[in-house]
């Protein structure tokens, strides 16, 4: 994809350069500069549910996420908040290996996502699929178990029963046989949530599960998210409604192409930080991104 | 191979048809309905047969009317199936045109005695024979199809010129067009009618393969070459004409390379259009695959050059000196290939930005100025991100390393303005002044 | 609960059963084809007209319909199996939103056929050796599909343009190559162009074998990968996140499509092949909301079209089989579009009318109930005795007098209401029960919306209006549970002022 050289952090880091110089002796000018050996240190906690290290993501060379560095604390309900085009969905998709990352590293419970897929549940945006598709609600929930079922094996009664249980948890058991286009927006969102529950994961990534749902569904979904947290799961939720953030989430990640701030809601969800996230002070970041995109094209 | 006036005549007829198709095809492309051209040119078959049966002759007028009717029906049926049956639009197109084409085939075979139409003839056309069928115009014999196609082309051009703005708006944004009082749906059906009529006028002489190819391929190629509406129309028309000429040349020439005789002209014209398209895909200045690869390479080289400058600046800033071998080794480690570093250094030497002294590499005055502005970008960026973004201090460098190559002079000053008077980066190193060469070692100048 | 060991053995058994089922299906198909090809009368050479139909006289009709004739049996079974295979795999193409990719694919096979012919004829073999031609077709078809996908990936052109470019350029190249072949002195090229329009009648027993084999592969493939293909079509992103190799699955699906297309070229021709891939699935969609049923119905429609089309074209002179097959499929489509149980036009219309009637009737009942409740009826007279003037109802629901009449007539027919003179109506006892139920649902829903959805009371009436008519029994029970205290009364009081 992006072939521009990523200068090795350790090699050119001004700090390490200084360290190398210190070894060469203080006043033997002009001493010969020797390339430092590549660093191997890893300061990130190995067992965090989700650990993102200096990740940069670009769509067609336009960077949409820059230098995201984040460790998700275990057992928290984490809200990802930011304006439109801030790269919230992109963040989730990059973690899930759905779009390539330009640089950086993502680990799930200390291992690359590829090896830990069974630990991660995903709720895509509701608009991402065709709801006219000829499947019933319970069929959709069964899809959450496909990875467990494995290649070429049919969905058995046992899996259907498990799917029904998940539907019941989201209060949709009555609608199991309905074709999905006959469900309201909120009900469709609950079906998606049930599918993620069927994945029986430890880490859940949800892309706007509360957008376009009625108030009753919103409450039901929040109740389930709290239930998940109580069960020790870690849940990352892309959220768009600033008013409800302090009420729903105990940890927030403010994102606008970069992480503006993250931490417990009480500390981080401040006017100042929101102004940084939504306000115009970071236009220079945008400018730089556009310059990169433009220069890349020319 | 020898070119005769017969060949010229064939190319003129084909070019006229190709231009008419390519012009209308541009609108189909902009409306993302290119396959509608394919669908209509298949679906008009029953219209042709019906017109033949009713009028009892192969008169051009009857054929045009029959085709226009079926063309509109195809567009309308497709819409109905799409809306009534909630069938995806392309699938409903597939259903409608295959059904109509099948009806046409059955009609042709059923009425074979009374209808002098051959599906093969509709498919291939008889472009090789067009110069033989002449009419007298201004006292000169002119190919009849040339006259017909010229008329169709004129009609199309007149339509496009008359509704230039309206077509543009309704192609890009039908909803907006409707609010502006332009009847977008009417435009749609008028366009479809024109497509059907042009298609039929071309069938007889150049065949449906070529019609479909010219409706789709030249506009697609033109779309890769330009972003402007007017240029797109012109370019697509020209590419249509060019494929006609090249195609005929190819038809009588290319097969001889493998020891064959000449081949079907219409088919080769489609192939020629395909080759032009492939050329556009590869070499289009802005969107071409090869041009983009070259751009990427140039960009990579520029970044490597700047990395070398930055490296030398930092080394000199520490009062040290680096040997060329060590610098190349360092660059090899970061870019993954040694030749890029070598190329960058050679280029810098050519620009007289660096010089190899007895003890190692040094920046020249010009080199130091360039390096200073780069380092200034880097450190300003670090200071800026440190101030506004939650990023651990040890991660700032990584970000600045990428950004520094893309920060223009005005942006640099905007950064400096935002930081108002900060003179050092977060690690406490001096941010070089813009333009003035900082000379930490007082050497080499 | 069952233990893990039991579960895995169960799983294994299911898998075995599934594979066995698939193999059985394939076996039956092969058997059919076999009986067509081997048993029965000795091969007779039919006299085929130029358009591909077998010329028969009227008394042969019975023979054809009973498939007693060897050649007819070959053709009919071959096309039916082809329809079956195309209908099966076409469903996934339709749902993957790639319906017209098959069009580009089938057109792109032509240059392969031509090149294969030239290569085989030049190397001294029989230029028209079918497996060789089909291999050429498959290769160039695959190149065409790859071309479409690459154009979409590497350029800014959209799906339709990518399809059109590949379709027309490959087809043009094919025609040019056929033009070359026609002027070749070696080999007899006549018949190659039958791939364009199809020439069903020239099918041989060997071709039927080929089709049966391909249909078997497609059926087994779709059966084994049913779940994976379904997921791929519904939610590509989720499939990727779960770790399914989406590119591989896509390639497998396209391979099956290429297989079917290439096999079908001879029967229906490359221009109409797309019809067999698109029409049966599109028709099947009108009958069902389940993917598995859709596949079965689509396969059935495909097979039936192939069967009917080839039989009809065999009974009548001058009917090209390929076109008739497509017309049979189109007829199935029209019937499905009109009468389909799940979303046919008539069905949708009836549903809408029924719902509208039900809604109006319920509105009427509620209006009457509320009128009585407000005590605007005949003073202290018992509820069932209350007479309600038309004028009051007209005012309450802003209905026109004409419309009110029609609603009352219908309610009268259902025994819910009766007229008292020309100006008043009265509810029957059945009507009172129904009215009580309707009003109760309405108010429960209103209360639910107010207490749980934070909607201002003044807005509730409209929302409740639209939803109450579709409230099911279970939902009502759930609401009662949620609103236990309000539901204690048989009909809770209205939470807002009545109009």
* C-alpha end-to-end distance of chain A: 16 Å
Give the amount of beta strand of chain B, in percent: under 5%
Which spans of chain A of ≥5 residues are poorly predicted at pLDDT below 50? 1-30, 38-43
**Bulk shape of chain B:** elongated
Number of distinct helices of chain A: 12
Query: Could you give the count of β-strands of chain B?
Result: 5
CATH superfamily of the largest domain in chain B: ABC transporter involved in vitamin B12 uptake, BtuC
Determine the fraction of residues in helical runs of chain B and give it as a percent range. Answer: over 70%
Oligomer: heterotrimer
Estimate the global geometry of chain A from the Cα principal axes.
Answer: globular
Name of the CATH class of chain A: Alpha Beta
What structural category characterises the helix and strand content of chain A?
Answer: alpha/beta
Gross CATH architecture of the largest domain in chain B: Orthogonal Bundle
Query: Strand arrangement, largest sheet of chain A?
Result: 7-8-9-4-10-11
- Highest-level CATH class of the largest domain in chain B: Mainly Alpha
CATH superfamily descriptor of chain A? P-loop containing nucleotide triphosphate hydrolases
CATH topology of the largest domain in chain B: ABC transporter involved in vitamin B12 uptake, BtuC
Please provide a written account of the structure.
The complex is a heterotrimer of chains A (298), B (445) and C (499). Chain A has 298 residues and is of the alpha/beta class. Chain A has a single domain (50-296), classed as Rossmann fold. Chain A contains twelve helices and eleven strands. Chain A has helices spanning 9-12, 14-24, 88-95, 137-143, 146-149, 157-169, 185-198, 215-230, 245-248, 265-268, 271-278, 283-297; strands at 31-32, 50-59, 62-72, 77-81, 103-108, 111-112, 120-123, 203-207, 234-239, 251-256, 258-264. In chain A, strand 8 (203-207), helix 8 and strand 9 form a beta-alpha-beta unit. The radius of gyration of chain A is 22 Å and the shape is globular. In chain B, 72% of the residues lie in helices and 4% in strands. Chain B folds into two domains: 5-211, ABC transporter involved in vitamin B12 uptake, BtuC, CATH 1.10.3470; 292-418, Winged helix-like DNA-binding domain superfamily/Winged helix DNA-binding domain (Arc Repressor Mutant, subunit A). Chain B is built from 18 helices and five strands. In chain B, the strands form two sheets. In chain B, strands 1-2 form a two-stranded antiparallel sheet. Chain C has 499 residues and is mainly alpha-helical. Chains B and C meet through helix 2, helix 5, helix 6, helix 10 and helix 12 of B and helix 6, helix 12 and helix 14 of C. Strand 1 of chain A pairs parallel with strand 3 of chain B.
